[in-house]
Amino acid sequence: MLAEKYSIVSVVAQALRGQRGWKPVWREPEPRAEYDVVIVGGGGHGLATAWYLASQHGITSVAVLEKGYLGSGNVGRNTTIVRSNYLLPGNIPFYEHSLKLWEGLERDINYNAMVSQRGVLNLFHSDAQRDAYARRGNAMRLHGVDAELLDRDAVRRLYPFFDYDNARFPIQGGLLQPRGGTVRHDAVAWGYARAADRRGVDLIQNCEVTGIRVEGGRAVGVETGRGVIRARKIGLACAGNSSRVAAMAGLRLPIESHVLQAFVSEGIKPLVDGVVTFGAGHFYMSQSDKGGLVFGGDIDGYNSYAQRGNLPVVEDVCEGGMALMPGIGRLRLLRQWGGLMDMSMDGSPIIDRTPVEGLYLNAGWCYGGFKATPASGWCFAHLIARDAPHPVATAFRLDRFATGHLIDEKGAGAQPNLH
Ligand SMILES: Cc1cc2nc3c(=O)[nH]c(=O)nc-3n(C[C@H](O)[C@H](O)[C@H](O)COP(=O)(O)OP(=O)(O)OC[C@H]3O[C@@H](n4cnc5c(N)ncnc54)[C@H](O)[C@@H]3O)c2cc1C
């Protein structure tokens, strides 16, 4: 069954039929005994990988196995920010490739993902921080990425309601990436799922992978709650659970799992029209189309597989918000939730082959993997299809922790909870 093409014509036609003719967005197939490629994890990265395997490499004998429902993980739990404002050469080309794919995504997958390039502004509060941000902005511009260093008056013109004279954290200016912004997160999962399904990819929900079959050093299939599924190649894209799933093939990953929380306030009139990060603590925010302020902060700081957070971090995040924008104190918190982060040892991801032949790894996205979704899927599909890394992802090697070629964007050292 082919889903219809969404267009103004189909919207009008459905309206005339009383909205009763819409078809399911994807099929619910039974798993086959064997596929060319099995992707473990139906989050953003797994679904994007399946779509690009089909659309860019013509590989359609693909199954995406998801233990819950599609998009039930971090792709539906994040704060929707996309940007490419990185410093290091290993990162900038990859994230810029991702931002370019975001810019064309809706046409590519025929789905409204509400891509909104409303600008991402990182505030700085000291001379040293301004120098660091200027350096990062220069690195971005050298790579052809948009970046503007704003002084305090320019920031004040954009956001007059911030506390500029806060005694501890006075705002001195900010680094703006105008092309950064937000994308409706669960629409990304649904859009990639629908597009991949249209090309014949089987999306199997409620299908937990419980084992990886390895014969003679080669991965040949997975054990699931719905039987054994054999595959020529297996890609792991199970953020937050990467270590557990990789352990099924005898691998120990340089990754810790941590909780990250997010928050939404009650709806208010349009106030914050971009994405803003506080530079003196861990707090960032944007405003959703429903009017709620969407904000978040630091990870909870201890290893966990629980998708819920602790109260001290709630307090810490709200304190950051109050220091930046005291008016936020009059808002009520509507919702709060947590997701599981694969925190790698240098804060950067892994897209690579593993020592087990036929087993490929996409992991370690820390709390910044949503923005990477298109490029991650693009590069992982390239790696699986061609057995060679994509040129913009060559730095994301698994063996860099042994060879010392780390991509430590923050300079925090081998301390996963600090990245
Ligand atoms: C609160 C919060 C805020 C965030 N904010 C941002 C942000 O603003 N910008 C940004 O860029 N990033 C952000 N992130 C990070 C981003 O969401 C993640 O890095 C990214 O979504 C991870 O990739 P994914 O979408 O494939 O993960 P997921 O959606 O988590 O997909 C992995 C899937 O694997 C499945 N799975 C696990 N084990 C198995 C198994 N054994 N068998 C079958 N399936 C399995 C899971 O159920 C899950 O659906 C945030 C994350 C959180 C939690």
From TrEMBL:
Q: Which residues form the Rhodanese domain?
A: 37-81
Tell me where on the tree of life, at the top rank, the source sits. Bacteria
A molecular function (GO) held by this record is: nucleotide binding
Q: What is this protein called?
A: Sarcosine oxidase subunit beta
EC no.? 1.5.3.24
Catalytic reaction(s) noted: sarcosine + (6S)-5,6,7,8-tetrahydrofolate + O2 = (6R)-5,10-methylene-5,6,7,8-tetrahydrofolate + glycine + H2O2; sarcosine + O2 + H2O = formaldehyde + glycine + H2O2
For this entry, list what GO says about its biological process. Answer: tetrahydrofolate metabolic process
Localisation per UniProt entry = Cytoplasm
Query: NCBIfam families under this entry?
Result: soxB
> Record's Gene Ontology CC terms?
cytoplasm
According to the UniProt record, what class of enzyme is this?
oxidoreductase
Q: Which family does it belong to?
A: Belongs to the SoxB family.
Which is a Pfam family this sequence falls into?
A: DAO
Which cofactors does this gene product need? FAD; FMN
Alphabetically sorted, this entry's keywords are:
Cytoplasm, FAD, Flavoprotein, FMN, Nucleotide-binding, Oxidoreductase
